[in-house]
């Protein structure tokens, strides 16, 4: 029986084989762009461990980290959804607070309550490998039952959301409501309803409100 350390060494060796070279991403497109009013298509490219997704007509540009072993062993050409599935899985690991060690989070954006850019940036640093991930506050509520059911009632399956394919008809805003104690409000509007979730300093949801607008 393999010890955990042994299994880790083998895992590292396997990915080591693949990180020595780049991978070919067999699919040229991830389908139509979903940005409002855009009729472009989403082109992809694989470079240095990242899948780059770019719209050929609007400014949409997303880079997501995906190891070559995923691209090499999964048939991305016939199942481009693999890219999204992997990304969703990675994001959910970040949301739950783990890389290969626990993540330390830091609120890095819009700490001033005057800031009205509508986004609150959050940095997650792995205490084991030092890997850094960046999200904004709304990412922390993906998977929360109130958000899942709110989107479901608006006809949106949250499992289908991709970083490069945000659902149409949904608007959101993130604001720092107070710094001591830290409270971040995430407001999502879909149809004629608004859902507000409030995160505390541990980025846990401590308050929620759903109302007609
Ligand atoms: Zn576009
Ligand atoms: Zn790590």
Structure explained in plain terms:
With about 210 residues, this protein is an alpha+beta fold. It has 2 domains: about 1-80, no CATH class; about 105-213, no CATH class. Helix content is about 20%, strand content about 35%. It is built from 4 helices and 11 strands. The chain has helices spanning about 5-20, 70-75, 80-95, 145-155; strands at about 30, 40-45, 50-55, 60-65, 105, 120-125, 130-135, 170-180, 180-190, 195-200, 205-210. A 4-stranded antiparallel beta sheet has the order 1-2-3-4, with helices on one face. Strands 8-9-10-11 form a 4-stranded antiparallel beta sheet, covered by helices on one side. Strands 5-6-7 form a 3-stranded antiparallel beta sheet, with no helix packed on it. A hairpin with a 5-residue loop joins strand 6 and strand 7 (about 130-135). It is globular. Mean pLDDT is about 80; it is low at about 5-20. Bound molecules: zinc ion (2 copies). One zinc ion (ZN) binds near residues 99 and 100. The site of one zinc ion has 8 residues, from loops.
């Amino acid at each position: 029986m393999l010890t955990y350390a042994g299994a880790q060494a083998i895992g590292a060796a396997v990915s080591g084989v693949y990180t020595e070279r780049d991978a070919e991403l067999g699919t040229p497109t991830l389908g139509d762009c979903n940005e409002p009013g855009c009729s472009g298509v989403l082109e992809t490219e694989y470079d240095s461990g990242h899948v780059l997704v770019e719209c050929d007509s609007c400014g949409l540009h997303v880079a997501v980290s995906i190891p070559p072993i995923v691209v090499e062993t999964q048939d991305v050409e016939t199942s481009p959804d693999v890219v999204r599935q992997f990304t969703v899985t990675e994001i959910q690991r970040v949301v739950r607070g783990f890389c290969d060690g626990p993540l330390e989070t830091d609120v890095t954006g819009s700490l001033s309550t005057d800031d009205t850019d509508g986004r609150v940036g959050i940095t997650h640093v792995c205490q084991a490998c030092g890997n850094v991930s960046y999200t904004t506050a709304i990412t922390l509520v993906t998977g929360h039952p109130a958000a899942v059911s709110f989107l479901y009632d608006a006809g949106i399956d949250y499992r289908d959301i991709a970083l490069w394919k945000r659902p149409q008809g949904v608007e959101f805003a993130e604001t720092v409501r107070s710094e001591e104690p830290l409270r971040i409000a995430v407001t999502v509007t879909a149809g004629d309803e608004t859902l507000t979730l409030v995160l505390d300093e541990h980025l846990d949801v401590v308050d929620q409100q759903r109302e007609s607008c």
